[in-house]
Amino acid sequence: MSTGHTITIEQGDEHVRVVHGGQVLAESDRALVLRETGSPARYYIPAEDVRTDLLTPSETHTECPFKGTASYWSLPDAENLVWAYPDPKPEVAAIKDHLCFYEVEVS
Predict the structure, then answer these.
(1) Count of domains forming the chain
(2) pLDDT of residue 4
């Protein structure tokens, strides 16, 4: 039985950049593009391309029935700005060790 819910993950070919408050938080040519039914396309950026030293772990965790449990990180002026799935479900294993931001610049 199909739920009609789909998730696809592709290697992106765009340059992705995340800037907040004038500071570059992430920049990558290796982002994955996750497309999910009912949601906008999201760019998952390899952790090595993210300024994780600027992020503080949040107490927030959310559960997605399709991807698993998400952990969040914040900046002093932006709570839960970034999230990741440290132990994603097998169907979306490609997003492990990648972080996602709400706002990205794509070129």
Answers:
(1) 1
(2) 87
